[in-house]
Amino acid sequence: MSKECTDKLWGGRFSQPTDKFVEEFTASIDFDKRLYHQDIRGSIAHARMLGKQGIIPLADVEKIVHGLQEILDQIEAGKFDFSVSLEDIHMNIEARLSAKIGEAGKRLHTGRSRNDQVALDIRLYLRDELVEISAYLDLLIDSLLSQAEKNLDVIMPGYTHLQTAQPILFAHHMLAYVEMFKRDKGRMEDCLRRMNVLPLGAGALAGTTFPIDREHVAELLDFPEVTRNSLDSVSDRDFALEFMSASSILMMHLSRFSEELILWSTSEFKFVDLSDSFCTGSSIMPQKKNPDVPELVRGKTGRVYGNLMALLTVMKSLPLAYNKDMQEDKEPLFDTIDTVKGSLKIFADMIREMKVNAATMRQAAAKGFSTATDVADYLVRKGMPFRDAHEVVGKSVAYCLSRGKDLPELTMEEWQGFSDKIDADIYDAITLEASVNARRATGGTALERVKAEIERVKSGR
Ligand code: ARG
To answer: The Fumarate lyase N-terminal domain covers which part of the protein (predicted)?
Structure first.
């Protein structure tokens, strides 16, 4: 047997060394080294359980725990040499442990496989990241609430088809995003709940012949439950897919928001000013201030969708249980985590610092016959069926268009020409404030309703 073969932790049955390029091609250490902390934490729990069950000597457990802690310190101090020929984080750490403490180190892998080990490591890793992502979502929700509160009475045009539809409170628009991000938080929490199950103990695929105590390991690692089927435990990546699906929806929300911010900061709209610290200039056009941050977040949405597609495609025809294909789960997963965290963080700061141009928004809200529906509702309150009212107002809008007038500019005489149900009180019924504040039912844009919603979100109900 050649020396290179025996260097491998699995070298026993091999008589020729691994091809150098194959070694590089199959290695995951370059990206899975980020799991070092989880790998060590999982190994310590596993070793303690092996000791408690009398599967390995307690003296060995102490050596293993101590050795692993030293390795942890070394990695954190940047003094650990990761080796491609040791393939992945699991074997890098295990080989180093055995080199350090000998026999005892070689007992650590008793009753365990890299298949259940990696499933555990990813769950441990993602579990912490999900808590962080939830916290970033809270930060963003806070920024939105603070903009809503700062601009409580600012009226802007609400759109459908990107055509002026009805006046709304800017705060109401911000609260729409609050709802979206609250749902994203809920999806992350759901994902966390389903993911929070210990897979270790599944072994390679069928379980283990040793009298292990999985519930004890679960307790040590803070898992409320253990998985119930060994095959599923090592072949399941649903939790990563769920996270990436939830992340795709979250990025879709950020992307829609980006699109609005980009539009709102054009010279045509001028609804908002993004702080200089979130924009860049042009190398040729001196006047430019480009909304790079929202543009990039909109762009990065593509890679998060791509990551989800990548892993779905990896998984779609894999027979049970573990297949090496599944090593391809990590890069898209890590990239999704980084992208989502970065996007949320930068958005929370950018929104907090955004300046709202109340006067411009108000001017725009007054245009485009935005209170036409209010005239129709007015007629309905005076006894006209809604369909007839719609027709009457449609005619008055056409009349206005032909005269270059706006609805509030029509004289009493002109109004009465459209319907004798219209009285002088029409003028008060179609101001921007009246329009907004008339929408008082739950979910509407009325000031009192929006204030109540802000309070509701703040009190966490
Ligand atoms: N590096 C591997 C992965 O990320 C670990 C599990 C490998 N298991 C195996 N039997 N080769 O999927």
So the answer is: 12-306
Q: 198 CB contacts (<8 Å, ≥6 apart)?
A: 120, 123, 214, 217, 218, 221, 223, 225, 226, 227
Answer yes or no: is the C-beta of 115 below 6 A from any ligand 1 atom: yes
Residue among 109, 113, 115 at smallest CA distance from 232: 115
Domain ranges of the chain: 3-110, 115-363, 366-458
Tokens of 183: 């749902």
Q: What does the block give as tokens for 262?
A: 């980009």
Distance CA 409, CA 229 (A): 73
Residue 178 alpha carbon to ligand 1 centre in Å: 40
Which is the CATH superfamily of the domain at 366-458?
Fumarase/aspartase (C-terminal domain) (1.10.40.30)
Distances in whole angstroms, Cα of residue 86 to Cα of each of 64, 80, 83, 163: 19, 13, 5, 60
Q: Residue 306 pLDDT > 90, yes or no?
A: yes
Q: Is 327 in the pocket of ligand 1 (CB under 6 A)?
A: yes
Residue type, 16: Q
* Residue among 297, 184, 194, 203 at smallest CA distance from 240: 194
Q: What percent of the chain has pLDDT over 90?
A: 92
In short, whether 28's Cβ falls inside 6 Å of ligand 1 is yes
Which residues 6+ apart lie within 8 Å of 65 measured at CB? 44, 47, 48
Do residues 289 and 275 lie in contact, with contact meaning Cβ atoms separated by under 8 Å? no
**Which among 161, 277, 317, 459 is annotated as catalytic?**
161
The two structure tokens encoding residue 445: 């844009």
pTM: 0.94
Q: Is 117 in the pocket of ligand 1 (CB under 6 A)?
A: no
Q: Name the 3-class secondary structure at 252.
A: helix
Report strand pairing: 225-226 vs 272-273: unpaired
Q: Verify whether residue 267 is a known catalytic residue.
A: no
Residue 386: how many other CB atoms lie within 10 Å: 11
Question: Residue 281 has what pLDDT?
Answer: 79
- What type of residue sits at position 290? N
| Residues 399, 402: Cα–Cα separation, whole Å | 5
- For residues 292-309, average pLDDT: 97
| DSSP annotation of 320 | S
pLDDT of residue 6: 57
Given the candidates 3.40.190.170, 3.30.70.640, 1.10.275.10, 3.30.200.20, the CATH classification of the domain at 3-110 is 1.10.275.10
**282 labelled catalytic:** yes
d(CA 24, CA 18): 10
Q: How confident is the model at residue 459 (pLDDT cuts 50, 70, 90)?
A: very high
Selection from 256, 185, 178, 192 nearest residue 222 by Cα? 192
From 1.20.200.10, 1.20.120.1760, 2.60.120.260, 3.50.50.60, which CATH number describes the 115-363 domain? 1.20.200.10
